[in-house]
Write a structure and sequence with these properties.
Blueprint lengths: L26 E7 L5 E7 L7 E3 L6 E4 L20 H8 L2 H21 L5
Antiparallel strand pairs: 1-2, 1-4, 3-4
Length: 121
């Protein structure tokens, strides 16, 4: 059985495909800087929109995009979304006088209910 083994090729270690005739898509290198000043590079497609913030693959910290001159790219105001609180959403649906009226009705109801249920009676 040993005399029938495959010879001359390391199975699984080499590909039989070549890179002949293969054209790679155009790429561009983007450089990001971390808060401590260190930088890392990320490759993107040439026609891709490059994000201004990218997470470092080594440290997990967020890095800011650097331009060709080595300065940090300014973030657009549209990128930062201001979170709305519950109060903001409530004011979108009702006015302050309506809210004060609802509050007073609820307080009156709770005070009336508290007087009906006496402990030990």
């Amino acid at each position: 059985m040993a005399d029938r083994s495959l010879r001359g090729m390391r199975l699984g270690s080499q590909s039989l495909q070549s890179e002949e005739g293969v054209t790679f898509s155009p790429r561009k290198k983007s450089v990001y800087q971390l808060a401590d000043g260190s930088t890392f590079e990320v490759m993107f497609s040439a026609d891709a929109e490059v994000p201004t913030i990218w997470e470092s693959p080594k440290s997990g910290q967020e890095g800011r995009l650097l331009d060709d001159a080595g300065r940090q790219v300014e973030m657009e105001a549209a990128d930062v979304k201001v979170p709305r609180s519950h109060w903001d959403m409530l004011l979108e649906r009702r006015t302050r006088p309506e809210l004060e009226e609802l509050l007073q009705e609820r307080l009156d109801f709770l005070r009336a209910r508290r007087g009906q249920h006496k402990i030990g009676a």
